[in-house]
Structure formats: structure tokens, C-alpha cells
Amino acid sequence: MFLEMAKGGGWITPTTGTILLGVAHLIGSSSGIYVVPRVGRVLLLVLGHIGIAATHAAVGVFNNYGNNLGVVTNMCLFLAIY
Asked: Is the pTM here over 0.85, yes or no?
């Protein structure tokens, strides 16, 4: 997907996309250390599943319309939630 975006003249190359996804995952994992004790595991589990379902639906919609930036944005959001 990132290679296709780079061919279309976009600024996201495969390397940049991989770095973006890695940073989003790092931020999401790191924030979990602070959020779990304050919010609680059960509420976080429920909200996380709702967020994951919403980002999966958004990736499907953006992919249908050919909006690659929306797909990448929602993939980063998914990794931050996960």
C-alpha cells in the first residue's frame, strides 16, 4: 500500500509509512502504562474494542473510496488503540 502511495506522488514512502506505524504503536503502548491504573482494565477493554471496530470500519470505507491517507491515519489510530 505504501509503495502504491509513493508511485502516485504521495509523500508517504514505504519507509515513512513503517516509521509512522511504529511510532503510533509505541505511543499507544507507552500510554497504556499510565491509563490502565487510572481508568481500569474492564472499561479500557470495552472502549478499546469499540475503537478497534470503528477504525476497522473506517479503513474499509476509506479503502473503498481510494483515500490512502485516511487508510494510513486509521491504521495508526488502530495501532495506538491496540
From this structure: no
The Cα 25–Cα 19 span in angstroms is: 10
Based on the number of CB atoms within 10 Å of its own CB, is 76 exposed (0-12), middle (13-18) or buried (19 or more)? buried
Report the length, in residues, of the chain. 82
For 18-50, the pLDDT digits (tens) are 898 899 889 988 988 888 899 989 999 999 999
In whole angstroms, give the CA distance from residue 12 to residue 19. Answer: 10
Number of Cα atoms under 13 Å in the Cβ half of residue 18: 4
